[in-house]
């Protein structure tokens, strides 16, 4: 299990992870950098905040909490965290995108990831099934699903939401990276998801909406939600900015598919020191 660190240290970790995410994008331009910058504080709070049970030397330990990264393309910011915690060797980061590395643009059988990723909209279904199975086995383990808001256009998400609510899966926590942009543009111009919290409440979920770019704030929210046992699955709608920390990405509705040049990354890393 990770050691709990204080709020200032969480924010420093978030700065480091943002820099590392940019560096990894420079090494492997196929990575989806905008999507991976919006969820940095979420991963930092989860993995450094003492919220999860895990064993880096035995990633499939039965006692572990299950973290399912449904938005796999945004999981690049988790790579440096997992390496830092010892799930795999740190030199893998420098090899990202090469035949010698286990790391690629979308996580595929990476230690610390529960699933092979790529196809979107399935994480909540996998998480709901896992949560029900753990309940029936008498396990105290939690299930956490991290999903992008564009995935909520998928009907499979709402089937899972109904299923989890009906079965009162209060060992399940969904975190929605609510950056309001998908690959095709602004979510409100494709299918308006508002009011998102009311939709989940209608299926029997407990809902919380808060800033997703305060690592300390995300930690405080999840520290209450994850262990809660009140007969309801839980959703944290994390209000985020796609491409956080990169002004040109933040302002671009199509930043999902934008790459940065090596020169741009160098300048940004200098700014984020």
Summarize the structure.
The chain contains eleven helices and seven strands. It is α/β, with parallel strands linked by helices.
Nearest-integer average pLDDT: 95
CATH architecture type: 3-Layer(aba) Sandwich
CATH topology call: Rossmann fold
| Rg (C-alpha, Å) | 17 Å
What is the distance, rounded to the nearest whole angstrom, between the alpha carbons of the first and last residues?
29 Å
What class, by secondary structure content? alpha/beta
Please trace the helix and strand order, writing H or E for each element.
Answer: HHHEHHHEHEEEHEHEHH
Low-confidence stretches: none
Strand content range: 5-15%
Helical fraction equals 25-40%
Question: What is the count of β-strands?
Answer: 7
Counting structural domains, the number is 1
Q: What is the top-level CATH class?
A: Alpha Beta
Lay out the secondary structure.
Layout: H1 7-27, H2 33-37, H3 40-48, E1 66-69, H4 79-85, H5 91-94, H6 123-136, E2 143-148, H7 155-166, E3 172-178, E4 181-182, E5 185-186, H8 196-202, E6 206-211, H9 215-225, E7 234-239, H10 247-250, H11 262-271
Parallel strand pairs: 1-2, 2-3, 3-7, 6-7
Antiparallel strand pairs: 4-5
